TrEMBL record:
It comes from the Bacteria. This is Late competence development ComFB family protein. It comes from Cohnella boryungensis. InterPro entries: ComFB.
Amino acid sequence: MYFSRELSIYNAMEPIVSGMFEDHYVKTGILKCDCEKCQMDIILRTMNQVPPHYTSGQAGEAYIKALYQEPQLQSDILRELTKSVQVIEESPRH
């Protein structure tokens, strides 16, 4: 199958994970190291642990974001973020 350049594939979990990380870890100042490399590693590790939700448009993205207003799904992401913070803080790459 060939995809035209006008269609793009987007993982709607990226802004959800990034937003939760920002709200729960960056803004609170509880990270041992808040350098960009550590922050990116935490987000990337978390993204590899949560199921991806791909979409090709804004309607799909809005639907997925609405799903993740569910407290249990938010809790699942926060749990993975917490694990990622622990892993990266134990072995930072810098």
